[in-house]
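Figure 6 in text form: structure in, sequence out.
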C-alpha cells in the first residue's frame, strides 16, 4: 500500500509582528536598541580618539559638528526617547511587586519615578558638562 505523505504544516512566519499592535510596539522597542548600540560605538570612537592625542580628539569633535552627524544625533535622540518610554511603560510589569504602607505601588507611580530619575540624571550630566566647560 502506497500512502502519500504530506509535509507537516508550518505556519508562515513572514511579517508575524505586523499582525498585532502589541508585537509592532515590541519590535519598535527592540529596534531602538540598535540606536543605543550605535551611540555606544560613537562614544567608543571618541575615547579612542582621545587616547590618540589632541589632534585626533579635535578631529572627532569637528566630525560631530557636521550636518550628517547632527542629523544622526537627532535620529538617535528620537530613538532614545522611544526606547526610554517603552522601558518605563513595561517597568511596572517587570519589577517585583513593591508595597509601601501596606499597599501596592501603582504602575503610574513607578513610571513617574523612572522619568523623574532620568530627568534628574540628565540635568546633573548637563550641569556637570557646563561646569567642565567653564
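Output sequence:
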Amino acid at each position: 500500500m502506497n500512502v502519500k505523505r504530506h509535509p507537516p504544516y508550518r505556519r508562515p512566519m513572514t511579517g508575524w509582528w505586523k499582525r498585532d499592535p502589541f508585537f509592532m510596539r515590541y519590535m519598535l522597542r527592540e529596534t531602538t536598541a540598535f540606536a543605543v548600540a550605535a551611540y555606544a560605538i560613537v562614544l567608543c570612537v571618541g575615547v579612542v580618539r582621545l587616547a590618540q592625542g589632541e589632534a585626533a580628539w579635535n578631529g572627532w569633535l569637528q566630525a560631530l559638528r557636521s550636518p550628517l552627524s547632527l542629523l544622526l544625533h537627532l535620529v538617535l535622540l528620537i530613538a532614545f526617547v522611544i526606547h526610554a518610554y517603552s522601558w518605563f511603560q513595561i517597568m511596572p510589569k517587570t519589577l517585583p511587586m513593591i508595597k509601601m504602607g501596606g499597599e501596592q505601588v501603582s504602575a503610574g507611580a513607578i513610571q513617574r519615578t523612572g522619568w523623574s530619575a532620568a530627568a534628574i540624571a540628565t540635568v546633573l550630566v548637563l550641569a556637570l558638562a557646563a561646569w567642565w566647560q567653564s
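Caption detail: The first helix runs from residue 21 to 52.
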